[in-house]
Design a protein that fits this description.
binds iron/sulfur cluster; five-stranded mixed barrel; globular; OB fold (Dihydrolipoamide Acetyltransferase, E2P); binds 5'-deoxyadenosine; about 25% strand; six-stranded parallel β-sheet; about 450 residues; alpha/beta
Length: about 450
């Protein structure tokens, strides 16, 4: 009898990518996927610990999802990496694997099922190895697929666990990235998002060698120009990036590449130079804003989104105001803002001057008010324009479909035709805080 597995995934797009590859590996190894955790012998939790109390949440979800059918519980990803052997304080967990070792998961599951082993910990950092073990899939692709081009981070921002959980920066060879994108398109994908912790520091092996020359590497700019040429690709995005790695050439690529969306996620985190320095971000507020201005010069249709952290250790009220001022000046289309959250083993966790929760909450509310204002303005400016929308979900009302325009804004329409996975031009008629609506032309 084939054993069935269920995967629960938390966190970022990298995790979504990994969890899909894990499913393909298990399918290729004779397991079947179950949409219902209570019906599966194998439960897999692929985790994130960037912000909230991740281990606690994981343990309570294990409690909810286990049943008397459960034979194996495997936990993977960033919580595994951060917890080490501590993960086994939850007695139900049999396997803990890292973000770089999931290619060995089928083998580990078989060892547990056959009774050869009771607990397995596999957290090695074999950068890049897993990519060589991915299982080919013939299933229809989603209309929008992620392709990992790069993993890990060498920036060591003072608040961030990623360098410790995902490891050092690794760039996949350009040939493999292009092959994977081409294959997704052949299986039906129309939109590709190139993902990584720090995609604009990509430096992957070039797909050719020049005899007598040292091995060449490609930067993100070159990779995008190449992938944009793939037949059948309608939309290309990339995320997430670091301000310091935005080059004039990348801005030109935006201006010159029609399938690349005129949209860039450029996280700033804070608008105050002292805090930026403490965060180890490697740029000032002025340098950041100058980069946005240069980007707008080179590619006038460009729009931006950002991430913010409020209440970093020692942040004063006036320093926080600098962040609000930067948010206003930058005119973001969308933003994501978070209260600083202490992460074990990071430099910021050891800093004096941790900010009380209540102040962090007040600051977050204030910043979000400002960010929302600029989001509402952007949405208002869309009224009367025609937006190309890729529809990806149904709305709450009957015949309602929701999709994204090039700026990742939600666009709502009514249609008697099923629009999921389809591109349509939409005339925007109304705008709200988090979406706009209109009619299909
Ligand atoms: N506390 C709060 N937010 C964080 N982020 C990363 N680490 C932390 C932390 N310790 C946020 C940053 C980053 C986004 C992915 O998550 O804004 O850009
Ligand atoms: Fe974390 Fe900074 Fe690297 Fe982003 S750039 S993953 S915030 S260390």
């Amino acid at each position: 009898m084939e054993k069935s597995f269920y995967i629960e995934v938390y966190g970022c797009q990298m995790n979504v990518y990994d969890s899909r590859r894990i499913a393909e590996l298990l399918l290729a190894n004779g397991f079947v996927q179950s949409p219902d955790p209570h019906d599966a012998e194998i439960l897999i939790f692929y985790t994130c610990n960037v912000r909230e109390k991740a281990a606690q949440r994981l343990f309570s979800n294990i409690g909810f999802l286990r049943s008397n059918k459960t034979e194996v519980i495997a936990v993977g990803g960033c919580v595994s990496q951060a917890e080490g052997t501590n993960i086994f304080r939850n007695k139900h967990i049999n396997i803990s694997f890292g973000a770089q070792t999931y290619h060995r998961l089928p083998e580990h599951i078989n060892s547990i099922l056959s009774g050869k082993k009771a607990q397995i910990l596999d957290l090695a950092f074999d950068e890049g190895t897993k990519f060589r073990h991915l299982a080919p899939s013939t299933a229809k692709a989603s209309h929008s697929e992620f392709v990992t081009i790069q993993e890990g981070c060498d920036n060591f921002c003072a608040y961030c666990v990623v360098p410790y959980t995902r490891g050092r920066e690794y760039s996949r060879p350009a040939k493999d990235v292009i092959a994977e994108a081409r294959e997704f398109i052949a299986r039906g994908a129309k939109e590709i998002t190139l993902i990584g912790q720090n995609v604009n520091s990509y430096h992957g092996e070039a797909p050719y060698i020049t005899v007598g020359q040292p091995k060449e590497t490609w930067r993100l700019e070159r990779l995008i120009r190449e992938i944009a040429l793939l037949d059948g690709l309608k939309r290309l995005r990339y995320t997430t990036s670091h301000p310091k790695d935005f080059t004039a050439e990348l801005m030109r690529v935006h201006a010159e590449t029609p399938v690349l969306t005129p949209f860039a996620h450029i996280p700033v985190q804070s608008g105050n130079d002292r805090i930026l320095k403490l965060m180890n971000r490697g740029h000032t507020a002025r340098a950041y804003l100058d980069k946005l201005a240069m980007f707008r010069d080179i590619c006038p249709s460009i729009q931006f989104s950002s991430d913010f952290i409020v209440g970093f250790p020692t942040e004063t009220d006036t320093e926080f105001e600098d962040t609000v001022n930067l948010a206003e000046a930058a005119r973001y289309t969308i933003s994501y803002s978070f209260k600083y959250s202490r992460r074990k083993n990071t430099p910021a966790d050891k800093m004096d001057g941790q900010i009380p929760e209540r102040i962090k909450e007040e600051r977050l509310a204030l910043l979000q008010e400002t960010l929302l204002k600029s989001q509402v303005e952007h949405n208002r400016a869309l009224v009367g324009t025609t937006q190309e929308v890729l529809f990806d979900r149904v709305g709450r009302k009957e015949n309602q479909y929701i999709g994204k325009n090039v700026y990742l804004q939600s666009v709502i329409v009514e249609s008697s035709e099923n629009l999921i996975g389809e591109f349509r031009n939409v005339l925007v008629e109304q705008s709200g805080e988090n979406s706009v609506s209109g009619r299909v032309l």
